[in-house]
Amino acid sequence: MFFYIAIGMKWYARIQKVCFYIGMVGLLSVFLVLLVASNANFVAGFNSYVSSLFGVTSANAYQDIIDAAAKDDYTPLPWGSMPIAASLALIPMVVFFNLWPNWGATLYGEVRGASDYKRNVLGMGGA
User: Fold this and answer.
1) Contact assessment for residue 127 and residue 98, using Cβ atoms and an 8 Å cutoff
2) Is 111 helix (H, G, I), strand (E, B) or coil?
């Protein structure tokens, strides 16, 4: 953290911009893999990684997980009939998560352009 404070805002913004572009390239590559790969490729890759990372000895760990879920009476809901009420309980978490970027509102008296309320409200709402 000391390094980022010591280099100043100009260099920090440059580093942040580079990291953003690296992250966007990574996200784009994930989307491309999801578009190109098939379910059979996913199952084969899942079984390979589960055995190498976690030491699972089953030949088809993917199917074993699905069978174990079915044995415990798990049935996934169709996308159209998911309960929305359970998700409403997550709203306070989202609100408190957004408090972090808005915490700087107390410093607006010390920042140039603090009297431009439209820009500040849009910035806080967009965060």
Assistant:
1) yes
2) coil
